[in-house]
């Protein structure tokens, strides 16, 4: 596990301080699996460090971080503190302030689990109100790292294989290779017990623990993915299938974000699968685009635009988060499916996050910060830096278009085409009005109507605005009335 604060430090003259703060774990109603992951990874890492000759002061189950820090200083009398730059906005400064209270100078080392540097984003920003597109940034990262490059050219002569990576699921016969799983050892079982003791009232199930919590296991998961599952990642990247949680998605985000895997080694391993004929180029490019493109891009967006970014609400959304995001009590099959995945595993794949959970919140007009906090608390891979650009930017378009040039808004058409959900649903995906009509339809058109003026100025949305304006007036009135009723019901906490 890389940590730049340890690199170059002398094990004989250093103590590694690790603190589990119960107060920090209770700051949001974090999903239990997310807390287990963090405690289990920390405890295994402490063992690895000891085995490598480091002295570790591990303070488990502490009520409060600052008190535990003070207790360490009292016992060990350190002369300075060395920390890695924190991913969460403002956290490095808070740690420095705490150290200064104890008279300790601080050395801050660069973050370890990103590939890009600030200049990679900043040099693409030009002029007032400028924005960087993911595509421009991604190509620059490919050139910089040489990943999937043949000299100065992209492998296969194209930067983008998106067209090949959007297949809807066939009606029958789609099977996915099972993913590697990692049952809990004694240390992980101890972490599970800690979480049940201190966070028993938090949401989510711990279930059968199956995620890697050591670097060795994370590498095994990466290898398994690249050998057996990466080849089919591309075609079904955007598809949704009832009962299928992982499909061909990697489930590597938790391991990458917590520091068990470095994003560059992940994409290099994926490239090797292509170069050795184990996975098709379209799949590997699609995967590399997610890690070297999207992941790096959201990191840099966060670093560049915080702290005001998290408060953005460009579309003036005002609906409180509907109750079914928490309890799963809804008649909408797609939403039940997505929420049940999250409650049971703290995971849902990207299209469920974006086109079901996020899309619904966008078109219904959910307050961005409320949606953000729910996503942040409930996902095993959720951290401030990655959640803000994904939830507030990509899903809710509340950043005014910094992350996406147009909102990822869709009616039931999209879900009906890309999934096998609608046939299992009590709603009709073809109807927009009436009690049986799919709520996505009325809310989608109402969303267009509410933002008509803004979207008319967006060349990628103009055609939809025209389509709305071209519908019969009576239909438009009925659709808006249905949307109003749905929003009213959600406000009142009634089922939808
Ligand atoms: C509303 C919303 C919330 C999200 N919250 C998170 C989050 O808290 N943490 C998180 O890591 N990702 C988040 N994502 C991005 C993406 O959905 C997840 O990274 C992905 O679903 C993780 O599952 P996986 O490892 O199976 O990914 P795969 O589909 O296998 O993708 C491969 C890898 O690409 C990276 N990746 C892909 N898309 C993104 C992205 N948009 N931002 C950052 N990394 C990306 C991840 O490291 C992921 O492991 C969110 C997306 C949306 C729309
Ligand atoms: S009909 Fe609508 S609510 Fe039901 S599964 Fe399809 S998109 Fe979801």
From TrEMBL:
Q: Where is this region: Disordered?
A: 158-180
Cross-referenced InterPro entries: Crypto/Photolyase_FAD-like_sf, PhrB-like, Rossmann-like_a/b/a_fold, UV-DNA_repair_photolyase
* Lineage of producing organism: Bacteria, Bacillati, Vulcanimicrobiota, Vulcanimicrobiia, Vulcanimicrobiales
The protein here is known as (6-4) photolyase
Lineage: superkingdom:
Bacteria
Which Pfam family, any one of them, does this sequence belong to? Answer: DPRP
């Amino acid at each position: 596990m890389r940590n730049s604060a340890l690199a170059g430090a002398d094990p004989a003259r250093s103590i590694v301080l690790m603190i589990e703060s119960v107060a920090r774990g209770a700051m949001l109603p974090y999903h239990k699996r997310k807390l287990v992951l963090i405690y289990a990874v920390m405890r295994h890492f402490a063992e690895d460090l000891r085995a490598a000759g480091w002295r570790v002061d591990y303070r488990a189950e502490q009520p409060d971080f600052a008190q535990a820090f003070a207790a360490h200083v009292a016992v060990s009398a350190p002369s300075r503190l060395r920390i890695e730059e924190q991913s969460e906005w403002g956290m490095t400064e808070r740690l420095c302030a705490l150290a200064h209270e104890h008279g300790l100078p601080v050395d801050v080392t660069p973050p370890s689990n990103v590939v890009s540097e600030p200049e990679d984003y900043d040099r693409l920003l030009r002029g007032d109100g400028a924005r960087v597109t993911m595509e421009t940034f991604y190509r620059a990262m490919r050139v910089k790292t040489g990943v999937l490059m043949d000299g100065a050219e992209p492998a296969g002569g194209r930067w983008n294989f998106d067209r090949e990576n959007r297949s809807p699921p066939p009606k029958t016969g789609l099977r996915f290779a099972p993913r590697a799983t990692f049952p809990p050892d004694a240390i992980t079982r101890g972490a599970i017990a800690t979480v049940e003791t201190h966070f028993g009232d938090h949401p989510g199930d711990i279930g059968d623990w199956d995620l890697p919590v050591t670097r060795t296991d994370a590498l095994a998961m990466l290898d398994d993915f690249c050998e057996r599952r990466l080849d089919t990642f591309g075609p079904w990247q955007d598809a949704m299938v009832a009962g299928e949680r992982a499909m061909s998605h990697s489930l590597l985000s938790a391991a990458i974000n917590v520091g068990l895997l470095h994003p560059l080694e992940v994409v290099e391993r994926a490239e090797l699968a292509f170069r050795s004929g184990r996975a098709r180029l379209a799949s590997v490019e699609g995967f590399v685009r997610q890690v070297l493109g999207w992941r790096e891009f959201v990191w840099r967006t966060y670093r560049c635009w915080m702290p005001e970014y998290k408060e953005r609400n460009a579309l003036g959304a005002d609906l409180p988060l509907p109750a079914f995001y928490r309890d799963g009590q809804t008649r909408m099959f797609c939403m039940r499916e997505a929420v049940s995945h999250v409650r049971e595993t703290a995971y849902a794949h990207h299209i469920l996050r974006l086109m079901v959970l996020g899309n619904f919140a966008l078109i219904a007009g959910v307050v961005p910060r409320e949606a953000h906090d729910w996503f942040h608390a409930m996902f095993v891979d959720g951290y401030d830096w990655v959640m803000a650009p994904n939830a507030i930017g990509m899903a809710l378009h509340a950043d005014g278009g910094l992350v996406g040039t147009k909102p990822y808004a869709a009616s039931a058409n999209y879900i009906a085409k890309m999934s096998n959900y609608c046939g299992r649903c009590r709603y009709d995906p073809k109807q927009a009005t009436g009690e049986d009509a799919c709520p996505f339809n009325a809310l989608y058109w109402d969303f267009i109507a509410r933002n008509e003026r803004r979207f008319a100025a967006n060349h990628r949305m103009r055609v939809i605005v025209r389509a709305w304006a071209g519908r019969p007036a009576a239909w438009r009135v009925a659709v808006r009335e249905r949307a109003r009723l749905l929003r009213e019901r959600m406000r009142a906490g009634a089922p939808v």
